[in-house]
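Practice problem: predict the structure.
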Amino acid sequence: MEQLQHQHYDLVILGASGFTGKYVVREALKFLNTPSSPLKTLALAGRDPAKVAEALKWAAQPASSPSIPIIKADISNPTSLRELCTRTKLLLNCVGPFRLYGEPVVSACVEAGCDYLDICGEPEFMERMEAIYHEKAVEKGSLVVSACGFDSVPAELGLMFNSRQWEPPAVPNRVEAYLNLESKKRIVGNFGTYESAVLGVANMKQLQDLRRSRPRRARLAIPGPPPKGPVIEHQKTVGLWAIRLPSADSIVVRRTLSTLTENPHGLPGVNEGEEQMEHRKNFWSKVKPAHFGVKISFKSLLGILPIIIFGIFIGLFGRIAFGRWLLLKFPSIFSLGGFRKNGPTEEEVESASFKMWFIGHGYSDGSLASQGNRKPDTEIITRVMGPEIGYLTAPIILLQCALVLLNKRNNLPGGGVFPPGIVFGPTDLQEGLQQNGISFDIISKKALQV
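Answer:
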């Protein structure tokens, strides 16, 4: 247990002993006190210091555990959270589901004026935090950014990467992301992700009510009509069968694009210089709004069947208390083995990877979009790919976001509750991801027969 009660840290990881938390600790250790890293001081926090110490020991292998302070903090104890947040520049929250456990942490960070990042993929939580805490976060100088994991940075940066390939006068109309998960072993998901999905269905009405109670956001000016497509699609270009994925990605992307519509040059940094200001304006001038959606995809049509069955189970049982109890009691049964309470093994994690194809359709000249029902005449395909999404890619993304925030704080907004794209888009986050195993590639650009 940590003894130096007045020490101040660059970074605290809360929930360090959880399924994902220990992988986040392992990723953080790679950058602690290394040359050019802004991460010089680190502390770990959780309600059970002994379990946090075990997680640190696991994360440090094969080396022995480094001397890192471990602080007892519990979300049910606001005093411990406030004390924790007054002692760090930045807090990484790994305690989910966030709709159950996230708000006390956000509240403590905002009150203390420290910055906050998490790996949440729960739209109702993210939008509720924005509604409740945005103004206070602006006042206190606390930057609160959710979805800094696989939900939803690959979607946000992947869309921006595709968008920037459309050189004037070309403009995109729609970009569809096709997520393909690959593994030499069975792909097993984190129970926390499963629990969040179940609770998401249970809280759909609250999300709808929240949206109705808030002012309407700016409408996106997208050239051409919105796309129409089949429920199940055979995407021949990349050889995949796909079905729409009801994830947070497209919702988070729309929040970023709405913020961009309201702030065409992006969000100014709290103390940015003229060079950074020009860079920011130039970056956002190349990002063009487009209709966006995400689909889960498989190499065979049979791969879609378990997703449909799982969706039916959640849709039927997720709306009633007893149904949710069944879903959460027997995750392996209702997900057809896709999720287990004890999560995947280390071997299963290491064997998995992802590819996310971004297929953009648009016009070679923006003026063509206004010509009746003119079909897009140009296609640009890009791709983001990397290791297993929940335990490897998510911690990589979270830590790279943290390092950008610690290193370039003056170039980021002074405070507020935002999605990651609008905050990290003009930074060197993409370069950091590329240097740590997540690639961004241009696959093809071609004219379409209309």
